[in-house]
């Protein structure tokens, strides 16, 4: 038993230098690297929430999406973001509701299988905060949407890939996109919470 404990401690001690080399992300623009990035689907979430008859807040998420970010640390406002969401990947943890949301009452995924977002303006507020405004196309309707963004930093991860990380929040009025079923009993305001890591591809 003593030998097993000692072997475990030795293994842990050997692993410490490898972890210590990971300095973590930096938000210093002078130290950041630019390029073209794609979303790391294993470390990204798009969550939504809304009021349910005023009694509770209902939550869900989109499980299938792609995003491409072109990032320039020397001119962050010239960066661009594009995303596509497969609406068939909606998940509320309630199977009947998932299916209902795909019908013509709501997203009508047979006719409108995806939503897209394309940035049109990026505003830097501080070294770690800003806004991204873009055109959201949903249910055949295109409207501008602004996200409040927090930059978590960039750096090389344990897999030796260069990453950037962001959190974002925003609001969408669903009736603006022809998705007004059951308003106002079921909330018209949809709150978005997004977190994503991006891996550099070039």
Automatic annotation (TrEMBL):
It comes from the Bacteria. Residues 36-199 form the Lipid/polyisoprenoid-binding YceI-like domain. Pfam families: YceI. Residues 1-20 form the signal peptide. Keywords: Signal. InterPro entries: Lipid/polyisoprenoid-bd_YceI, TTHA0802/YceI-like_sf. This is Polyisoprenoid-binding protein.
């Amino acid at each position: 038993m003593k030998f097993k404990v000692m072997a475990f401690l030795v293994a842990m001690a050997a692993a410490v230098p490898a972890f210590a080399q990971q300095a973590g992300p930096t938000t210093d623009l002078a130290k950041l690297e630019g390029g073209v990035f794609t979303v790391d689907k294993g470390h990204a979430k798009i969550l939504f929430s809304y009021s349910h008859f005023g009694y509770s807040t209902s939550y869900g998420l989109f499980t299938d999406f792609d995003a491409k970010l072109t990032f320039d640390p020397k001119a962050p406002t010239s960066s661009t973001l594009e995303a596509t969401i497969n609406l068939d990947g909606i998940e509320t943890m309630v199977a009947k509701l998932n299916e209902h949301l795909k019908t013509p009452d709501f997203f009508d995924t047979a006719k409108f299988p995806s939503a897209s977002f394309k940035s049109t303006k990026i505003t830097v507020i501080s070294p770690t905060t800003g806004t991204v405004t873009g055109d959201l196309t949903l249910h055949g309707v295109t409207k501008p949407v602004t996200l409040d963004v927090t930059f978590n930093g960039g750096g090389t991860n344990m897999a030796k890939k260069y990453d950037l990380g962001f959190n974002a929040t925003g609001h969408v009025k669903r009736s603006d996109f022809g998705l007004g079923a059951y308003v106002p009993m079921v909330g018209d305001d949809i709150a978005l919470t997004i977190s994503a890591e991006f891996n550099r591809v070039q």
